[in-house]
Amino acid sequence: MTVKGAEFWYPxxxxxxxxxxxxxxxxxxxxxxxxxxxxxxxxxxxxxSGAKNAVLPIMAAILLTKEPCTIVNVPALRDVxxxxxxxxxxxxxxxxxxxxxxxxxxxxxxxxxxxAGPPDLMGEIRSSIxxxxxxxxxxxxxMVSYPGxxxxxxxxxxxxxxxLRLLGASISEEYGRITARTTGLRGADIxxxxxxxxxxxxxxxxxxxxxxxxxxxxxxxxxxxxxxxxFLNLIGANIRGAGTDTIRIVGRSSLxxxxxxxxxxxxxxxxxxxxxxxxxxxxxxxxxxxxxxLALTAKLGEMGAEITEEDDGTLRVRANRRLxxxxxxxxxxxxxxxxxxxxxxxxxxxxxxxxxLTETVFEKRFNHVEELRRMxxxxxxxxxxxxxxxxxxxxxxxVQASDLRAGAGLVIAALAAEGTxxxxxxxxxxxxxxxxxVKLGSLGAVIKKKDPYPKVRASTG
Length: 461
Ligand code: UD1
Fold this sequence. Notes:
The protein folds into two domains: 29-49 and 265-458, UDP-n-acetylglucosamine1-carboxyvinyl-transferase, Chain, CATH 3.65.10; 52-261, UDP-n-acetylglucosamine1-carboxyvinyl-transferase, Chain (Alpha-beta prism). Helix content is 28%, strand content 23%. It is built from 14 helices and 23 strands. It has helices spanning 52-61, 78-90, 119-122, 132-139, 158-166, 197-207, 223-234, 266-278, 294-303, 341-350, 368-374, 404-416, 426-429, 436-442; strands spanning 33-37, 43-46, 69-72, 93-99, 102-108, 141-145, 170-174, 177-181, 189-191, 213-217, 238-240, 246-250, 258-261, 282-285, 306-309, 315-318, 327-329, 353-358, 378-382, 385-390, 398-400, 420-424, 446-450. The protein is globular. The structure holds uridine-diphosphate-N-acetylglucosamine (UD1).
């Protein structure tokens, strides 16, 4: 698959920020690897990038307005590049730049050029589904293919479709393509069977231009949903309640433009915090929102790490001794994030005692277990529960990242392991981590990215 639009190329800076890697991507075993020499203690200060899960729905939300919008603190991620490709195919003009020293995107969709999502790109990222709500609201029509994303179990979109139907869309599915049409969306009372993050966001975006009032009950409460509300309200929407389980939206006839800085990535911050603990390190995470990390920091504290919040909001994470085992269940926010489950599993395998880790959000999110075992971890899986016996003596070997967060878990194990590890599948990791090797390297990790062959820059054709 070729991502079109090399004119969007934005070179990566020395500190790991910037850079929208648009390149030819053929998934396969020959992709880039991280070569990691383990057992180097992480120390120093690092600043996580803007949140992937905040920027993607906000990019899609810009389809709702004719006016230009600027998003600031945009992370340079593969998924962001993919979304840029999708929006461009729909008629967006996108400019990359910097605003107040931070990478930014200015997007304007004066006219919708097409209401059909490009199938090749739609299949690459789960977030492609976010174009549905805005296109239906603005144009009364959209055609999408089933979204792609990480291989972490079935990821149906029934809740998105059910909600859109309640708002007045008629939806048909044929040959893997979904067509939705409406003569005008109307506000409705929607009760989500599960607090799905994506469905909550898609329905919020559809409802902002619907006639009348929409109430989403049992909504997801993730901070990224609050960020989407803040952005939409900034450009003229009327939404209240994001961050609670009831969101109320009063429809408007049109929206304007504006500039919005996305929140810091709590999952990246959490990953770096766990990496610090796994190496017995002392790391300051600058520019984070510590409240977004409470479920993790409470658990790290229970395990024996020392977490302190400094005056300027910097979070200091120290692990001076071997950590203790603990039990964790992943849950929708404010529970423990499923996106930190592989990383904490790597840490649990190093801790003293038996930990129990239960995955309740996704059905098949234990792809990393086999690879961690190959490094020496003692993990037994029974259904959705993993029993991790520690402390294991992890040793370096070649492992394969099967998805984004599984890759992050393997990197953490490799940072703590004796000897050298090769983590393959870096293309998955780059979907959600900006310059991970640069950031870890700045903290003292010995990590190199090895490309098997030079990247081919995309053509603009
Ligand atoms: C978002 C995040 C992802 C995170 C996940 C859970 C983005 C871009 N991605 O994904 O990083 O892991 O939240 O915190 O924000 N479900 C249904 N039907 C639906 C929708 C979801 O059954 O229509 C199920 C899913 O299969 C899954 C669970 O609900 O088991 C959670 O999914 P959801 O909250 O929708 O996750 P995403 O929005 O896909």
